[in-house]
Structure formats: structure tokens, C-alpha cells
Design goal:
Blueprint (H helix, E strand, L loop, with lengths): L4 E3 L8 H8 L6 E8 H6 L2 H5 L8 E6 L3 H14 L3 E6 L4 H5 L10 H14 L4 E5 L8 H14 L4 E5 L21 H10 L4 E5 L5 H8 L8 E4 L1 H5 L7 H6 L8 H17 L5 H4 L12 H11 L8 H17 L1
Parallel strand pairs: 1-2, 1-8, 2-3, 3-4, 4-5, 5-6, 6-7, 7-8
Bound molecules: flavin mononucleotide.
The site of flavin mononucleotide has 22 residues, from β2 and α10.
Amino acid sequence: MLHKFCIAPMIDYTDRHCRYFFRKLTKNAFLYSEMVVSETIVYGDKDFFLKFDGSEHPVALQIAGSNPKNLSYAAKCGEDFGYDEINFNLGCPSKKVQEGNFGACLMNDMDLVEDCLGSMIKSVSVPVTVKCRIGLDDDDPYEVLPAMIERLNSIGIKTIIIHARKAILNGLDPKKNREIPPLDYDLVRLIKRKWPELNLVLNGGINSIEKAKKELNSNQYDPDGIMMGRAAYIDPFILTNIDNVFYKDKKINHSRFDIVREMIPYIESEIANGTYINHITRHMLGLFHGVKGAKVWRSYLSENAPKRKSDINVIKEALIKIEEIQKEVA
Ligand SMILES: Cc1cc2nc3c(=O)[nH]c(=O)nc-3n(C[C@H](O)[C@H](O)[C@H](O)COP(=O)(O)O)c2cc1C
């Protein structure tokens, strides 16, 4: 139930400000951090990379790496900071990530994956989960994925998020790797049939609430949850449907304007602590997606927030502008 609707880890996107904003739209969706490399946690500013607001729960920290010792330390730090889950990245195909020997390329080295996960599991008491692809390059996913799931299951990984397309490590950049290899939802259902006890989350191409609903209600081997990435960022207001549709909870019935007003005290307190306003408002640009005045909202914030970095009036002015446009429509 917890994972029924997850919002995907997205580097440069799902930082703590973005997650705080998403939480104003849904109380229940399971949120994921951006990928954080274990060495960043070992050697970097832990507060900067790990701190988050208490309202973000349930929230997972996604870690990438391939050094079991560093991973176990990073996982423990994540638990100490209060994350509800530690997720291990086995899906990122970027060149840089491959050079560091982590992400999707690790699916070729399941012995190392077992070492990494084993040491993380030993160091924390929160669940350790995996996000992976269905295979790499010339792999046959119908052979590779079941073999991998078998091994993950045997070491105690109970929640697996499957981005249901292969990762092509040579020749496709990360963007194309989210578009070109075809999606195979049937394979995820096959895995569910074989391992009904696992908590399986389907990811990739879920671009609307309707599609999420359909994929969770099509037959007895449906995944336990779905994970949405890009669509949630492009049109975040759709997230207000999650609580009632997927969690049988009350819908957050606040308007887009209410959401902006609710964000203002947070933005004010962040500015007081030295955060630039554009680091928060950039995640809110899509809030009025598809409604009259969306362009003005977006362009006013994009132009002014980076220039007036500590000025809360930027968002108040943008709000007045779009309110006026909407009044004209009404
Ligand atoms: C900008 C961006 C950044 C991403 N960063 C990560 C990441 O840090 N970790 C990860 O596992 N996946 C990452 N992904 C992949 C998403 O989590 C997700 O698997 C992918 O976008 C497919 O889901 P979607 O079709 O719903 O967008 C990223 C995707 C995007 C668009």
C-alpha cells in the first residue's frame, strides 16, 4: 500500500524543495530523493545532501555506488537522517555513472550487487530497495530479469522498482534511454506472477493518473504500485488526485492558488536561511500547466526569481498576475 503511487527519483529535480512542494499536493505518495552517490555522503556535507523537512515522509533516499563499505556508511547516514527507505540505483545509464562503475552497468555484475546490498542491509533497519531496468544492451530481458530478481529476493530485497525498459549503455544518452528502448509491462507482470510475495513497482511511461490506474487494475498479476517521473514534474497539480484514487484518503481540495500561498511561509523561512528563491520556485513552474495564464506564471518566475534571489515578493507578484488573468477569464 505504501508504494501504491511513487514519485520517481530525478536528479536535479526531486530535491528537498521539490519534495516539500509535492507534499502539498499529496499526503500519501511515496517520494524519492535524487540519486546521491555514496562517496558524496562519505566525504561531502551530509546536511546539505541529506537534510529534509519532516513533512516529506514517506520519503526514500536513493543511493548509487559500488563500494560496499561506502554504501553501508551512506545508507546508515540516510537512516540516521530519518529516511524511511534506502533505495539502490541499478538503473542510471549515463556515461559518467558508468565510469564510476555504478547505476545500470552493475546489473552485469550481480556478485558485486549482492555485496553492496548485503552491506547496506546489515547497516540499517529501514527497508533497502532496488530500482533497476529490465536488462542491458543485447540482453534478453526474459532471461536476465528473472535471474536478477531471484538473486535479489534471495538476499532479502522485498521491494523492487522496475523501469520497464532496457538500458542501452553504449550509444544512447540518458534522455534517449528514457524514450527509445521499448517498454515491456508484460514482463513486469510475469515477474509478479512468479514472485507474488514481492512488492513490485512499475515505472516508465506512466504519464497520467488514468494510465496509472489502468496499470494497477488490469489483471491479477498487476504490480503493487506504480512510479511516475516526468509527468509529475511537468504537471504537478495532477498529484492532487493521488490520495483519493490510490489511497482511499481525502483528496487535497486546495486550488493552485492555495498551494502557492501555502508555499510562501516555507519559502520565506528558506530565504532567511540563505536559500535562493529560484531554487524553490523552479519546481513550481508547472503548477498552472494547462490553465489560462500558465505562460505568464512561468515566465514571470523564470525571469525574476534568478535576479531577485532573496525577494519573497517575486512569487507574490507572480501570483497576483495569474490571479488577474484568471479573473478576466471568469
Ligand atoms: C531529469 C531526470 C532525472 C532522473 N534522475 C534519476 C535518478 O537520479 N535516479 C533514478 O533512478 N532515475 C532517474 N531518472 C529516471 C526516472 O526515475 C524514471 O525511471 C524515468 O524518468 C521513467 O519514468 P517516467 O516515464 O515516468 O518519467 C531520471 C529521470 C529524469 C527525467
